[in-house]
């Protein structure tokens, strides 16, 4: 299971980098109000909306590096450990690390799809970020 989580996190990093590259290649997209909704998360750092694309890219790189380092330390005990869910309305919900990590990678896929749709609407060309493409083109070369 930890190998799957590592693969999913690595795919997420690759796919996020691809979508950011596509946003950067299409002038003005990062400033688009619909694309960058500036909806803050409930954590202090995430509340700070990046002012430029390079700052967002740096944040992605830091988060992916931290996630990859964490994933190398995963074992069944850590995957089974329960956590406090970071949404106050769900204070009594305690998912496993396994389920929380699955949520992270699946939810990021949702947001990449939103960005891809908006990028296409603005005349840009979103990249293919499917997991199976990453398996074929990237994972085997690592």
Q: What is the compact description of this entry?
A:
The chain is built from six helices and no strands.
Describe the structure.
It is a single chain. By secondary structure, the chain is mostly helical. The protein has one domain (2-141): Four Helix Bundle (Hemerythrin (Met), subunit A) (Up-down Bundle), CATH 1.20.120. It contains six helices and no strands. The protein is globular.
Which features characterize this protein?
60% helix; mainly alpha; Four Helix Bundle (Hemerythrin (Met), subunit A); 142 residues
Name the CATH class: Mainly Alpha
**Given the helix and strand composition, which structural class is it?**
mainly alpha
Q: What form results from the Cα inertia axes?
A: globular
Largest sheet: none
Termini gap = 19 Å
How many domains, as an integer? 1
Relative strand content: under 5%
Rg, please? Answer: 16 Å
SSE sequence, one letter per element:
HHHHHH
Instruction: Indicate the CATH topology.
Output: Four Helix Bundle (Hemerythrin (Met), subunit A)
How many separate helices?
A: 6
Percent helix among the residues?
A: 55-70%
Identify low-pLDDT runs. Answer: 37-42
Named at the architecture level, the CATH assignment is Up-down Bundle
Mean of residue pLDDT values? 84
Kindly state the number of beta strands: 0
